[in-house]
Amino acid sequence: MAITQTTVYLPNILFDETEGSIDTSSQPGIGVSIELERSSLRPTSQLSNSNILHPVEGLTAATTNDHHMLTRSKRGIVKKKAFLSVLSSICSDSTLSEPYSHKTALKVPAWKSAMQEEYDALINQNTWTLVPLPPDKNLVSCKWIFKIKKNADGSIARHKARLVARGFSQEYGIDYDETYSPVVRHTTVRMILSIAASYGWPLHQLDVKNAFLHGVLNEEVYMTQPPGFEDSQHPTHVCKLQKSLYGLKQAPRAWNERFASFLPSLGFKSSYADPSLFTLISGTSKAYLLLYVDDIILTGNCDKLLAEIKTSLQHEFEMKDLGPLHYFLGLEIKYLSHGLFVSQQKYARDLIHKAGLDDCHSHITPCQSGLKLLKDHGTPLSSNDAAQFRSLVGCLQYLTFTRPDIAFSVNSVCQFLHCPTDQHFTAAKRILKYVKGTNDYGITFRRGSFSSSDGSLSLQVFSDHNFSLQAYSDADWAGDPNDRKSTTGFVILLNGSPVSWCSKKQTAVSRSSTEAEYRSMADTTSELQWLKHLLTDLHLTLDSTPTLHCDNISALALATNPVHHSKLKHIEVDIHFTRDKVRDGSIRLQFVCSQEQLADLFTKGLCSPQHDYLCSSLMLGSPPSS
């Protein structure tokens, strides 16, 4: 008698033969465990047809054993089997993973529904018309992209399918020209959060659905029909695009121009300091709007005005009101009785998990005190490890959005992206190990104002709703052993909370510590002037002249008086920018002792006590109790 053998393969399933159970806990998102009765593990000759567990169609390959060789199956000897075919439909939950092709997605109801929703939205927006492809015209291909949208707690919010054009197949000058589109700066986001916290204003979040479809194309673009949704009556036709589609090189610019052209009809005015910041002033009522691609933050002092703005935006664009701002671009906003707490805890957890450091020991500082990374120190990384290193460093850069304590360390490893070694990779991992131990760190924006006329910070009652800017500038002279260039570091506080900071290597070699500090002061002054322009666009006033703190007496003297020094006569004219602003009264300078120099955190690796002290002074730490 011929016996049919069936073999089933299903990855990530472990079978414990000693216990006779199947464990799927190793597969993320699936927790299925089925106990098999030992009586069921009998030779097939002892099983009736009703007891045989048949494999799932499409997952098995059957062969007929009709040769004359005496095998164990012919003798009735059967080894214990996991009968994985029974679990295939249970364990391979395709809704928990993102498919790589549209053919796979169409077989899963959740993804098929998401694709249909996206396709219907494209049709309703009159995104294209089907036409024959004209001769000598470029044809742009397209594909489906799938993404599982998650909430701040990691739970699944929805399945998102997006049809995107493959922009790399476009040709410059034929189907696209200008591509630049602005997004709101990180400093501007922190400024608005700080202002909203000081006033106690509400923060609203909105999301534009299919934002790029609202942009109007000025070029003639032809695209292939969406895979899986081809028109059966016109299979050879192509899509002549009427609206900008995700993936097109000019799509972000077209959407931004469309949105920015509509806001003036509501009374908004774009900021000169940041084109993605819009302000509306109506009598005593104020409203501020931030735009980052299709994500919007809206705040102001009048609830009625904010409600009218949201209604107008929803009437013009298909938009979702996400309610109070809680999760924005990886930022987590926690509302306190005395302000806001902003962190990136989920982003950091995901990064730690991605790097495989969930079980690692943490460090108390992001880098070793006094450590200098060398260009050729260590063994060069393989191409795969180098790619992982660059990916990790890029993610760490974004983490500095709310973590100024790692800015210097991240800047250090960023200088070795071209040819990294194992020592550089170790330094990058140390930063992440420090983040693991301080994952709950974030910035507190308090409802109040701070004064620091004597160099110390103290909380005062925020009664007149005016603002103060305090800047700290520092430099590490010839700190880079590779080229002996100095490191500039500064931090600027708005009402006591950091809103802007920087750690970067200077472009020229300084001949003295005074020159290095003087160059750093010029960069800090430039940032101070930009923040003043930003506050002016927001129709806010400063209660005093911005103060720039420096711990180098010679640099302060050079910025205050036009003294001549043989070691400074070569300095470029633009470096004297600070002296000009001191002369016209735009800023004032003040000496600060090195122990209270907050910018020290951005120029060198510090020991743990000093590092912790400066973090606390910058309102950086664990979330307050209330």
Characteristic key phrases:
alpha+beta, 626 residues, disordered N terminus, 4 domains, globular, six-stranded antiparallel β-sheet
Compact summary:
Pfam families: RVT_2. This protein is α+β, with helices and mostly antiparallel strands and 626 residues long. Helices cover 28% and strands 23% of the residues.
Please explain how this structure is put together.
The chain is of the alpha+beta class and 626 residues long. The protein has four domains: 3-92, no CATH class; 102-313, no CATH class; 342-437, no CATH class; 448-592, Nucleotidyltransferase, domain 5. Helices cover 28% and strands 23% of the residues. Strands 13-14-15-16-10-17 form a six-stranded antiparallel β-sheet, with helices on both faces. β14 (277-282) and β15 (285-292) form a beta hairpin. α8 crosses α11 (422-437), α9 runs antiparallel to α10 (407-414) and α12 (513-537) crosses α13. It is globular. The model is unreliable at 1-63, 80-92 and 450-464 (pLDDT under 50).
Radius of gyration: 31 Å
pLDDT < 50 runs, ≥5 residues: 1-63, 80-92, 450-464
Give a quick account of the main beta sheet: strands, pairing sense, barrel closure.
6 strands, antiparallel
Number of helices: 15
Question: What's the structural domain tally?
Answer: 4
Strand order of the largest sheet: 13-14-15-16-10-17
Average residue-wise pLDDT: 85
The strand count comes to 29
Instruction: Determine the structural class based on helices, strands and strand pairing.
Output: alpha+beta
Shape: globular
GO molecular function, one term: RNA-directed DNA polymerase activity
Domain Reverse transcriptase Ty1/copia-type: 126-367
InterPro entries: DNA/RNA_pol_sf, RVT_2
Keywords: Nucleotidyltransferase, RNA-directed DNA polymerase, Transferase
